[in-house]
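User: structure tokens for this one?
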Amino acid sequence: MNANAHAVPVSRDPAIWRTIFLGVPLIIVTILFIVWRSQLAHLANRNVDSYGTLPDFELVDQTGNKFGSAQLDGKIWIADFIFTSCPGPCPIISTRMGEVQHALRDADVDLVSFTVDPDKDTPEVLRTYADKLNAQPQRWHFLTGAKSALYDLSKNGFKLATDDSEPGNPIHSTRFVLVDRHGKIRGYYDALAPDGVTKVIADARHLLREQPK
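Assistant:
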């Protein structure tokens, strides 16, 4: 018997291969989205702890106006610490905060990014940085001010390590911090971890149900 007698013909129709190449990525994306939604649903049912209350503070935002705990009173918000000339993790942290902004775009949750390099990060510099991230001005605030006030808030308020002993390259935390409507810290999340964004979104939504406006 001819060895090729039962060979299955391979289609050379480009339309079929085009459908396969386009369809497989779509299926993968759909599966990943379903898994992500499932993770959010699961995390939404867990308890959100408390880690102490933040002190009052007043700094300056990217518009040059005073902004601090008074403006955030009664709000749920998520904080991070960055600086605009950061050669390391800051671009990733800010991009992921942008993902949080998008996921919570219809939610009553503010975002606050504190600079750890206020000498360079003036309101004008922060405004340019915010524009590049498509930050919503009324929801995502970029704060600067006296270095002593910023570092004290990071260390003694948020309980996050900050060090400026290396000129031009301050060391700071890569965590997101979730704060409730009473100024209490309710969670810490590694912004660089694969599930960091998912967890902070889930817990923010939990707080929205726990503390309705």
